[in-house]
Amino acid sequence: MFLGAAMTGLAQIFAVGLAILGLLQSAVAAEETDFAARFAAEQALVATLSHSTMPQDQRQLGDLYRDGLIFSADNPIRKADRNAAIAAYRRAMELGDSSPAVIVSLGRLLMRASGGQGFSAIEPALQALALEGNGDATYLLAIDAMENRHMPLEQAIPRLEAAAMLGSAGAVRDLVAAGVPVGDTLKQAVLTRLTQRAEEGQAAASLSLFHFYADGLLTDRDPHTAMKWLKQAAQNDPVGAVEQLAEQYLLGLNVESDPVRAADLFRQAARAGGRNAALALGRAAMTETNMPVSNAEARWWLQRASEANVRTASVELSNLDLKIALAFKGAPEEREKLIMAALEPIADDPDALANLADHNWHSTDSEVIGKALLPLLEKQALNGRSVAALAYNAWLEANGRPLPDAIARALIVSLRKTPFVSVGFSNFTIASLALDRRMSEAVLSRNEAIRLLFKAADDNVGQAMLRLGQLYRQGDQLARSDSFAKRWFIQASEHAVERAGWELAEMQAASRDPGERQEADRFYLGEIDAGDPRGGLAMVQAHLRQDNLDGITLERAKSAIQAPNDRIALASLLISSGIPSHLQQADTLLSGLREDELEPADLVALGRLKSATAVTPEQTAAAISMLEKAAASGSQYARTALASSYLSSVMQRDKVPAAIAMLQQILDDNPKDPEARLLLARAYMLGIGVERDARKAASLVGDVRRENGMRMPKATLLEADWLAFSSDGRNPAKAVALLNAQAARGSSAAERALGEYYLNGFGPAIRPDAAASRMYAAAHSGDKEAMAALGHMLLNGYGLSQSREAGLGWLERAANAGNTAAMYEISRVFALRPQAESDTRQAIAWLQKAAERNHPNAAYQLGLAYLTGEWVEKDVEQASIWFDRSARSGNLLAARTLKAVRDGAKAEDAAIVSDTAD
């Protein structure tokens, strides 16, 4: 079969270019098929049957239309004709064929046609069959009662049970899905009936037995028996059953994976007219299925499916053509022509264009594709096609570009003219775009957007209610009001908006009212019982903030925690508390994880956690090794995490150039990667691995902020720092406003940053009481830096009543959570107590921990201890090691002391004690 379909314009350029460059073979591997002969024979048969007055001929004609006719002489894909099938079956009944096959087939078609209209005409015949013991007829009547007559499920269950007893596999599946117990007697009756029918050669019965044995619905799961029935079904069903058999071999379900066998079966089903098989062969060239399918063959099947109007085939074909065009290594202008040719078949199909735009294209590819795709989307958007306008906006937003006013106005007009889902939902869509600042004030004011949002909520749009609750909760464009926020979240929950329930529970968990906290716990426990690990994590986090996490609550939460990423997340929460008993629980959670069995993303999470809590160089090296292993998989997320670790670790100073190079490579590959840009911005801001360039740092951060808004707290904090400290863009008031807005969205880092501002007067006036309030909130949210700051404030009575015991407690929690500065401060507390209360053992233990983590002053003080023999046995060699580590961390005093030691100075002369060391 050759790619001989006529093409014009850009399509010809595409075909010729690919042929010349060898990206596609000039012909699909020749296959001796008789599509044309089969098509001609089938058309002749349809013509003969159409003029026949024999009832069995009309039944056969109905079967042909129901299953689909070959599309054309060179296209074997079958296309069904529901209306023609209904007409043929009705004609068969008029001619006297009242067989179960005709009545049930007609009933199935009428059930789905126009919401069940016309089903009543066939209902008496189905009832008669049901009384005769026909399970399929009984099942159809039950479905009609539920779907078309809206009978409650509990009333329809007896009908489903009767249908199941008569051998209806569909009824059995519905009962199981509804949670209705299926007794042994019913199970045996169904299996007996289905087995009898399957042995008579009924493919549908064989398929049902396959599913029952594969899924373990009516009997114990038995993959071998399941495959036996599926293979038997495939002998009598050349399309559907063969497609399912191919999927088993492709995915390795119930049988050993065999991509070659899967491809052969898909080809067999596709030649017999299988639409799904044709799509599977077409997609094989786009996905890593390991099926031996060339681009040429894949394209041929997608072209055939597209001609037969198979849904998504045109988009899949454009995807494949784009992949081929992007692999073109010739002149850029020629590649652009190939891309335009790839898009040409769907240029006037807004749904297909939108689908293509939603595809997660590689970032560098998206810039090339966008040149051809965006004008097409823009044209459709200006022509009033809202789906194209929304896709156009999403593409621009992902690339940090504003939505043109003309497109925004066209979108509003199109949504009001032809509402998207409903009038209310269209109003919600318009309001959301305006509130997200995707529409300018010139197009729609924020006040008008709020009005539309309230209007959408009045029209029972649950998402609008959720958004109103969020606005009131965050104090964003509406005055902050917890009571109004909760009211809207409750209403949204009643309209089945899942997120609303979680937001309401978060507010209740943070409430001072014990009753509300109990309501939050009830919600989380319900999610835990449903097997949702988010419920367990949220409940643990809530109780940690209240300082009342007990063993029973933790065990309830752990019951829903199974996957490695959830175990790591729970361990991270426990470690962030800094409480020793919780640290032990975290160790237990992590002890069962094996590095070689973790996915790259899980390995990154574990590596980051281990790195944050490492005390010794060996532990740090092990954590870095995990990140390096994850990065070696090619994961961009893992590579970014590794670069971050290299840049933030004092022990990895020699890896800083590699980190910068890695970030540059990531951004060459994906210029819009937000994490990589923020890491590079921080490097420019501090001069780590690159020449300090505050303007470049601000530009990178500003771009990320414009693209992500408040979705990335890290970007907000960096921008706030720029506004608070830079000489060029200094605007402390705006920095505080940014941090307040981010803190209202639950960012503990923003809370802590505000506390630091109030402590030091960066923007607002120095207010120790406000600083204490912010630090308290952030510390209870698990922010270890805030814990350390709160401990320091309590020790010194700054903004809070002085309490050395409470202060030391918070410092210890911060240190246990991995805060190096807290470790050092604890050592000083124990060392500088009055002689009778001093604890040199504790002091040196904490000093050692801080020094191991390269705290410059801790390393210096440890070096002095070894040099003078105070607290530890005198050891000049060890002293030199610690002075060297302190000097490499930036301590000039340590460098001078080290030089004195190496020059042979006496210990008492080398021990330069200076207040500046602390």
Structure description:
Strands 1-2 form a two-stranded antiparallel sheet. It has 918 residues and is an all-alpha fold. Strand 1 and strand 2 form a beta hairpin. The longest helix has 20 residues, at 363-382. The termini are far apart. Among the domains are: 746-808, Alpha Horseshoe (Serine Threonine Protein Phosphatase 5, Tetratricopeptide repeat); 819-918, Serine Threonine Protein Phosphatase 5, Tetratricopeptide repeat. 70% of the residues lie in helices and 1% in strands. InterPro entries: Sel1-like, Sel1_AlgK, TPR-like_helical_dom_sf. Pfam families: Sel1, TPR_19.
Topology:
Blueprint: H1 10-21, H2 35-50, H3 55-67, E1 69-72, E2 75-79, H4 82-94, H5 100-112, H6 119-131, H7 135-148, H8 153-165, H9 169-177, H10 184-199, H11 203-215, H12 223-236, H13 240-251, H14 259-271, H15 275-283, H16 295-307, H17 313-326, H18 332-343, H19 350-358, H20 363-382, H21 386-398, H22 405-417, H23 423-435, H24 446-458, H25 462-474, H26 482-494, H27 498-509, H28 514-529, H29 533-545, H30 551-558, H31 564-577, H32 580-591, H33 600-613, H34 617-631, H35 636-648, H36 656-669, H37 674-686, H38 694-708, H39 713-725, H40 732-743, H41 748-760, H42 768-780, H43 784-796, H44 804-816, H45 820-832, H46 840-852, H47 856-868, H48 876-888, H49 892-902, H50 907-910
Antiparallel strand pairs: 1-2
Helix pairs in contact: 1-18, 3-4, 4-5, 5-6, 5-7, 6-7, 7-8, 8-9, 10-11, 11-12, 12-13, 13-14, 14-15, 15-16, 16-17, 17-18, 17-19, 18-20, 19-20, 19-21, 20-21, 22-23, 23-24, 24-25, 25-26, 26-27, 27-28, 28-29, 29-30, 29-31, 31-32, 31-33, 33-34, 33-35, 34-35, 35-36, 35-37, 36-37, 37-38, 38-39, ...
InterPro entries: Sel1-like (IPR006597), Sel1_AlgK (IPR050767), TPR-like_helical_dom_sf (IPR011990)
Protein name: Sel1 repeat family protein
